TrEMBL record, chains A, B:
It is an enzyme of class 1 (oxidoreductase). It comes from Quercus rubra (Northern red oak). GO terms for molecular function: copper ion binding; L-ascorbate oxidase activity. It catalyses: 4 L-ascorbate + O2 = 4 monodehydro-L-ascorbate radical + 2 H2O. One of its GO terms (cellular component) is extracellular region. Pfam families: Cu-oxidase (PF00394), Cu-oxidase_2 (PF07731), Cu-oxidase_3 (PF07732). Its EC number is 1.10.3.3. InterPro entries: Cu-oxidase-like_N, Cu-oxidase_2nd, Cu-oxidase_C, Cu-oxidase_fam, Cu_oxidase_CS, Cu_oxidase_Cu_BS, Cupredoxin, CuRO_3_AAO. This is L-ascorbate oxidase.
Length: 495, 495
């Protein structure tokens, strides 16, 4: 890329000992300029299904993303069996320039990115497909806008499908017509298996599901993905579940599913709650936490621009990466006032249109005592639109967290912790916050560094929906020069 | 710009004592990253008509450009009189993304930018204008795609029009229907006045012309600009020369001129030759030069990509700006082999399709002894297309040069210097090289620093059409840290 900067995040890799290679522009590094080289080096310390993607501007939308599959050591096996292993990466696709999207999100008048034009399965989807493209019942592979992904399966075999979403906006439902899926892995952790017809999946999440090719081998089946969580205006994403030896581009004659009702939050919540640690692989969380941080998620107007805020603070990334500032004791490069650990719980009405006239763009950080246990309560609320609350997939860098519980309405710090699942909570790096609800999670601040925690919807993060945690900065080694070059690091130049 | 780097060049400002603020990415500075600040500080030491524009990627095409008008000191006046002073900036406009253009120019298969979709006069032009937009004879100002620039003049008054071109590709002809223009200034130097019906103008050139509002005051006249030098496929750029008090958006009923024949090189050459220093403002060039550098302009395939080369070297900007490398004695940041001062004059056929299989992308520099006089002979040749040679406007940073002469065919170093105009050559910063011809210029290397000399067609420069001169680097003061941050300057970080 001769004129574009970049930074690449290794999503789900915890970067123990290498916090400078987490790949987050403004947090752990300066962006890599055109022609420059940055060698990311890190340890992959456990098997699982992870991702990589750009962490600069809107470059996920622009297409910089993929899977990282970390294999099990020889002689070790998963608690499930399969014959073949395939990856399926889901994406929403905007046909416009991500540069224009970014400009719109930071302009007055504000210009929202809107709903995506297509849904992609492994990079393939459909757009402006004419009747001629489908009338024959065979995909017109000569029109690349209308040629779907086709997964060929052998009758009777069992498939592990690693399914991930890196959508820029859309929450999705994924299904394979006529086939149930058994969920067995989430974000690298083994899941107590459960069967589902459709998998709800948010941006930043990975799953493994087991699917058996045990249906009518004379035909193909639809693979479909649909927008949920927002009122959809994007056509169903289509793929073909192809039974060998049928022609792999032969369309099923059935009608592709349009998925569950987009606003069926109860169904999504039920699936989220069903995701628990596999009984042979439970890692129990610490029974109590040392600190509770409640983050109220609101949408606000800040200086005339729509922004997302946490406890009235909308994150604006500093010019000097936090990691560099903290390691070098710069105090003039970011907001030194600690951000609030909670909001006005008693008086805030989460069902009213957000006003929060005190919301401001800034960049303070939560400084966490090293090796302590922290609970995060994500509290959802109404946006600036009447009767609207959105779904936000929150992703934590550098750590997994235990998901202790989900609830409707306002979190009650006296009562709700009593319902926490401390027995077999799943350890993940991404978790949804549902409309008007709360999500509680716990993590151990055992990874020295500076770590972003943010909504994985790219435009929401661009609009400030994130916070930053620091722990054990004194234990971080010498930073590589390759992450520098911007902001106050220029003061460190020996001229 | 939240995700775009930038550098801004002050075109025509010589930057005596501030070579680090010439604004050329890769030559005098690292690009300015989003959110960063670089305060350009420089002395404007003489009056005249200059420009500013981006000098990064394809950002002129993206629209970052404008005039710099340096006024005369009080009590000093030009050798011409006028009542009013107006600026007219000409531009070719591509409707696509400049990011996509840049990708196309560096891809295999190579994708040329093609001809522009519109010509703009002071940012206004026309595109997809329907009959309804013009049928009434009045500009439909509600359609911003079809509302031209209108210059209102008062009958009987005299106008100085400062006309500049910052086209990305097109050489232009400019005229005002029914009005002659007297050319009086070029690139900040006073011109011995001459009258013309049309002004040929290349990217990077500025002119002042005097126009008298002495025609039929009952009507408006067309201002037109047309592509010359390449076979045009772009509609005539239209503006209105509006006689007050006629309605300023009333179209003339005459047919706008389509300009001179696009390939009438003789006419363009004649006008170039007519541009001489004003008799009261002649600065004589040194009578001889200390060094002659002959630069053969060829188009070549380098590693499968179309590039432009000078003496078989296609400029690829280094990651570390030349100025920083030279000041800090870095020898591993650019090609240390001096580039050739000439080509194989005897055997090279400038009328054959360029092959030059030895052409390579690289970044050597011409090191010039300080305060010596250098002659540059720009030698044109055939491109990689049969019977094709293009026009290239060459622009020198940090200096003006005397234009000693133009010629057809291959420059003859024995005979041709005898025809040099040493009596009253114009001092300029930009000069055209015509198809199959040569252009000779002379400059004094009296400005300590590192200076780019390049074709001002943005895509040609992007494709390597430039060389770099160094002189007096030992006289350059301490470089500001604000120009650093990229390439090997990271090694200078004190971590």
């Amino acid at each position: 890329m001769l004129t574009e900067n970049v930074a690449v995040h290794w999503h789900g890799i915890r970067q123990y000992g290498t916090p400078w290679h987490d790949g987050t522009d403004g947090v752990t590094q300066c962006a890599i300029m055109p022609g420059e080289t940055l060698d990311y080096k890190f340890v992959v310390d456990r098997a699982g299904t992870y991702l990589y993607h750009a962490h600069y501007g809107m470059q996920i939308s622009a297409g910089l993303y993929g899977f990282i599959i970390v294999k099990l050591p020889d002689g070790v096996s998963e608690p499930f069996a399969y014959d073949h292993d395939h990856t399926i990466l889901l994406k929403d696709w905007y046909h416009g320039s991500t540069y224009e999207e970014a400009v719109g999100l930071s302009s007055i008048p504000f210009k929202w990115v809107g709903e995506p034009q297509s849904l992609l399965i492994n990079g393939r989807g459909r757009f402006n497909c004419s009747a001629a493209d489908t009338a024959s019942g065979v995909c017109n592979a000569t029109n690349s806008d209308c040629s779907p992904y086709s997964l060929t399966v052998v009758p009777g075999k069992t498939y592990r499908l690693r399914i991930a979403s890196l959508t820029s906006l859309s929450a999705l439902s994924f299904e394979i017509e006529g086939h149930n899926m058994t969920v067995v892995e989430a974000d690298g952790s083994f899941v107590e298996p459960f069967v589902t017809k459709n998998l709800y999946i948010n941006s930043g999440e990975t799953y493994s599901v087991i699917v058996k090719a045990d249906q009518d081998t004379k035909r193909n089946y639809w693979i479909t993905t649909n927008v949920v969580g927002r009122k959809p205006s994007t056509p169903t994403g289509l793929g073909i579940f192809n039974y060998y030896p049928n022609y792999h581009y032969k369309y099923p004659t059935t009608v592709p599913t349009t998925g569950p009702f987009w606003n069926d939050t109860a169904s999504k919540l039920a699936q989220s709650r069903a995701i628990k640690a596999h009984h042979d692989y439970v890692t129990a969380p610490p029974p109590t936490s040392d600190r509770v941080i409640v983050l109220l998620n609101t949408q606000n107007l800040v200086n005339g621009i729509y922004r997302w805020s946490l406890n009235n603070i909308s994150l604006s990334l500093p010019l000097t990466p936090f990691l560099v500032s903290l390691k070098h004791n710069f105090t003039d490069t970011f907001d030194q006032n600690p951000p609030p650990d909670t909001y006005d719980v008693e008086n805030y009405d989460i069902y009213s249109v957000a006003e929060n006239k005190n919301a401001a763009s800034s960049n303070p950080i939560y400084r966490i005592d090293f090796n302590t246990t922290v609970d995060i309560i994500l509290q959802n609320a109404n946006t600036m639109t009447n009767a609207t609350s959105e779904t936000h997939p929150w992703h934590l860098h550098g750590h997994d967290f235990w998901i202790l519980g989900y609830g409707d309405g306002k979190f009650n710090i006296t009562k709700d912790p009593k319902s926490y699942n401390l027995a077999n909570p799943i350890l993940r790096n991404t978790v949804p916050l549902y409309p008007y609800g709360w999500t509680a999670l716990r993590f151990r601040a055992d990874n020295p560094g500076v770590w972003l925690f943010h909504c994985h919807i790219e435009s929401h993060f661009y609009m400030g929906m994130g916070v930053v945690f620091e722990a054990g900065i004194d234990k971080v080694g010498t930073l590589p020069k390759s992450i520098m070059g911007c902001g106050k690091t220029k003061h460190m130049i020996n001229s």
